[in-house]
Queue: 3 jobs
Job 1
Amino acid sequence: MKLRHLEIFHAVMICGTLSRAAESLNISQPAASKALKNAEMKLGFKLFQRVRGKLLPSSEALTLFEKAQNIYQDLDNLRLLADNLARDPRAKISLGCLPSLGLSLVPEMVTDFYQQNANLVMTLTTEHTETLVKKLDLREIDLALTLQPVQQGEIITTTIAEVPLVYIDRDYRQGVVAIDEIDQQRWISPGPHSLSAAIATRRDFSTTRLNVQTYYMATEFVKRGMGCSITDIFSARHNLTPTMIHPISPPMTIPLCLLRRADVSLSPIAHKFVDFICRQLRKQLQEINLGLYPENKKSIAPQG
């Protein structure tokens, strides 16, 4: 089947009639009819049957259409990729991040960076890791920040920080929490993501009171006294008071990862942004760790 044959076949399947298919392809109906007949002749079987003036697809056509849908999706992605390649990258950064980071860490970092780079045009998006990887593949974004490493295709991962995990509980006031002593009956699971995987390396919470899909939602339920959970320090500090945030024994961390395409060179401004967030994170995390694990410290102090 030639590309032209695929085009007329797909148009007829989508439009339902030959006349509408011809109109969508900006050709005459006789030309569309001829193309469809040529396609059937090349294939050696009928694609459509005329019943009461309508074109009904054969079983073979239905099977082909399923594959054709995948091809057209790939073509749409190719068009989007071409559009993104046409962008001028010299004064722009497109950054994607997890929703939890988009509520806490990223706005703070971007605001500080803008103070030094006022002419920058930046585009920000929040998605889960799987979608961020797809956006990198299509060059819709230049960089992505996630809490899990990715090794897929042309995507490379750089761990830029180890983010402390903390125990969060509105009703707890006794300092450091041993993970084995957390009350399983009050446990709020933060969802089937990298955070849960990190927690599972230390303890398996087989019983949960509540299952949620985002770190932010877990902190919201903790704030309302629904139970307890574990989350990253940035999500905790954004949504909870210091008295609800406690260090864990033994200390736990989760990697903050920068994702980018290995086959695409970053612009100078993107390199500058990466260097900036690495410096800022090193400084912040040093202060956070000093706040989390001093002697006789019951909860972290607010960071200025």
Job 2
Amino acid sequence: MTEVIELIDVNKVYTTGAIEVTALRDVSLRIDDNEFVAVSGPSGSGKSTLMNILGCLDVPTSGIFRLAGHDVQSFDEDQLSEVRNRFIGFVFQQFNLLAYMPAWRNVELPLVYAGVRPAERRRRALDALETVGLASRADHRPGELSGGQQQRVAIARALVTEPGMILADEPTGNLDSGSSADVLDLLQELHHAGRTIVLITHEHDIAQRASRTVVIRDGQVAE
């Protein structure tokens, strides 16, 4: 299998004045193409810091981070931004949808930043909404959708650039149990269709839906 992510002895230290806080300690981790991996751990364990590094939102203080074979530490901010926009699809606990835009306009936003032409943006946005089962809601604004439907729109937005990896940070945190199950079913369908899924969660039953769980505790890989 082709590795999508490889971390070797990664450390992350935050410095405020004379105070240093080590958020990650010697983390080594490999995630292969088309894996469905959950990263689990309690609040303060370091999983959010790990998510930021995996998503190229932050960089390690030391160690090696390779993404699709490339050393991320060598990237400048423009390159990191391009990787985030093209290779990684983000899904967050807060849906982060623009309230004044219909669903399809929210979904097309990453393509706007990528410079895709309007007609092509709309076509791809509608295709992505079809994939998540919301084609009939394309013209509805977020306030006209349920929480579960809003998260499906967010997943469609993550898919629209056809990224190699979906990084989902507590994607069921604001949903009821029924909507949570629907979102997890959708992530599993995307995994079976060939996507690499990394799911960040502090809930054990949610993590069990993944094929493999990486437990983070006190900034280290515990198991």
Job 3
Amino acid sequence: MHHQAIPYSVSDVKVEARTANRDQIRSWINLHQTARVIQAKIEERLRATTDLSWAEFELLMRLEVSSDRQLQMSEIAAQLVGSPSGTTRIADRLEKDGLIVRETPRENRRIVRVQLTDSGRAVLAEATEAFRLILQETFGDHLTESAVSELRGSLRTLLEKNGAWQEARCDPGLPTPKAS
């Protein structure tokens, strides 16, 4: 039997683009639904206990995590994945309420450093307690430690594969809770 090679060029080959299957679509929709539902409950609890929005709480938390050095507004905006102007509006309210102070060093007027005030630390401690309680009720009570670990690994993989994993933003060294 004689086989004949059939010449072809790459341009003749049609490559079918892969598309998401039903399970991937459902999982994606459920991921969004879950985030929205839990986020709403967190926001509600934060507002009720400390009058902070999630974004305000997160900004204060990131200042606490970086308490060994002052963060610049640009670093905070990058960590919060928000626009610089949106981050500035959040900081305006927190400063007006006396929870943070911002300063521009004389030697470099282009940067703005931010730090927590004592009042900010006290409000943050109360907000952190409320956040940990509601997160346990809405998330931790319903998943085993291994399920949480597996979920975190999957989410990290997705962030990394999409070029969005950054330690400072995605894995902040959170303060350990006080012993009860």
